[in-house]
Amino acid sequence: MSNDLHYISPPKEGFKNELFDRLLAAGYYRMQHLMFTCNETIINSDYKTIPVFWLRTLAQDVSLKKAARNILKKCAGFTVVIEPAYVDDEIETLYAAYKKYVQFEVSASCASYLHQPELPEPFDSMMIKVLDGNKLIAAGYFDTGNESIAGIMNIYHPQYRAYSPGKFLILQKLQYALSKNMQYYYTGYISTESIRFDYKTFPDAEAVEVLLPVERIWAPYSKLGKPFLDAYYMQLLHNL
């Protein structure tokens, strides 16, 4: 199966409101100022492609698992601030610490990951800041539509990794969706050949749906699982 990326450039009004919801539901996701979709990706230096399937969480159906509740308890002493997205020197300092810590390749800066400064911003974007006193220890970005949010990026200071700040930010995004009575939290893709993206199901795997690209339908992830998706992908290869 070809890893043929499909891109959509933003219309004059941008990717907002109902249009953003519809594109997310069709399996498209943000990449800087574009929306894209794919069925494969490359995550290692060997340039081998691996299959991916798009996920979303049914926000209103989530029943937080014990691990998620424990993270909320551990992080209860931190301050959470949600506001329109921006990038400043404080964010870039945090991003630099995160970039040095992680074992995979990331963009040179937070700003370059999120957008190209010479182009208008086509998304309605928000950010979550997590502070320990006055110290910024984590930040997460997400885009919003009418009934959906899409998580874009989470960064955190390595000194706080014991608090699972990345997962804490996922839970804060989920709470934001619930507070706005939104139906869907799109978390990106998962792969049948890597565990790197499995964390996206941790709040409650039973509330997660996966997009089947042939039928173009969303199905319960917990009732299918990776063995089914692996066989599904192999059948796609066979048919092609």
UniProtKB/TrEMBL annotation:
Q: Name one GO molecular function term.
A: arginyl-tRNA--protein transferase activity
| Keywords linked to the UniProt accession | Transferase
Answer yes or no on keyword Transferase: yes
Report the residue ranges that make up the N-end rule aminoacyl transferase C-terminal domain in this protein. Answer: 93-201
Q: Looking at the Swiss-Prot or TrEMBL record, what is one Pfam family this protein matches? A: ATE_C
What is the recorded name of this protein?
Answer: Arginine-tRNA-protein transferase
Recorded source organism is: Parafilimonas terrae
